[in-house]
User: Fold this.
Amino acid sequence: MSEIFEGLAEPHRRQIVELLRIRERSVGEIVEAMGISQPAVSKHLRILKEAGLVDVQPDAQKRIYRLRLEPLIELDAWLASYRSLWEARLDRLEAYLRKLQDEQASTQSAGASAEEALSEETSTDRASRRLSHGASD
Amino acid sequence: MANYTIVAEPDKQEIVITSILKAPRALVFQAMTDPAHIPNWWGPAYLTTHIDRMEARPGGSWRYVQRDAQGNEHAFRGVYHDVQGPERIVYTFEWEGMPGHVLLETITLEEHPEGTRMIDHSVFQSVADRDGMVASGMEGGAAETLDRLESLVASILATS
Assistant:
C-alpha cells in the first residue's frame, strides 16, 4: 500500500497516470506530452512499475506503458474504509444535531402559538424574539 | 452524507478536517461540550460511549470509555486547554491503548450560511504519529492529501 502512495505522491507521476488513463503510450509519447527529460520520465516510470501501477510491453523498438487498475482498486477500497470512519463520526453528529433542532422547533412552535393567542405583536417582533431566544440557548 | 474535506499533507504532522454542519453554532458547541450529548454522537454507533469524566473548561480533564458488544473497552482521555463558547475548544487527546502519543486538537466553529463551519485541526507529536493515525501500515511521509488522491482514483476508476 505504501508503494502505491509513494507512486502517486509525486505530481509528475500523477500526470503520467492521467496520461495512461486515456490510453497506453510509448516512453517517447510520454516524454513529449510531459515536457520533461527522458531520464526523469524513465525514473518516474520505474517507480510506477515497482508500485504495480503500470505494465510495460515491448512493441518492435518501443516500450509501451499501460495503467494497471488492480492497485487503484485496492487503494480505492482502503480510502473508502478510512473515509467511512470520519463520515460515520460526522454523520452521527449531523443526525444528532438535526434531532436536537427538531425537538427545539416543536417546543418553540408550541410556545409561539400560545403567544399568538395572547398578544398583538407583529409577526416580525415574534420572529426576532424567537431568533434571540435561539441564540441564547 | 456529511459535507467535509480532509487535508493531510505529506511530511506535516497535522490533519485538518473542515465540515459544514446544518445547525446553529451555539447548538454545535453545546453538543460538543455537554456530557449529556456526547454518547449520542461520539465515535461509531456500534460502540457505546460512557463518560467517565468531562470538565469542559480551561484546565478541566476528560475521559471517555467505549465498549463493543463483546465487552472490550477502549478509553480516551485528555485535558481541556481552552473552551470558549461558542467558537473554540482546544484539548489534548490520547488513546490509552497507545500511551504517550498525545495530539493537540483545536476545534473552531464559525457561522456559515448553511449553519456552522467546523474546522478540526489536529497536531501530532511527529509525522509518524500522524501517519499512524491516518493509516496504520502507511510508512514514512507518503501520506497524500487524501481528498485529492481520492478524487483522482475515483475519476480513473470511473472512466477506465
Q: What stands out?
A: The radius of gyration of chain B is 17 Å. Chain B is about 20% helix and 40% strand. The beta strands of chain B are 3-7, 14-21, 48-54, 61-67, 73-84, 88-95, 103-112, 115-123.
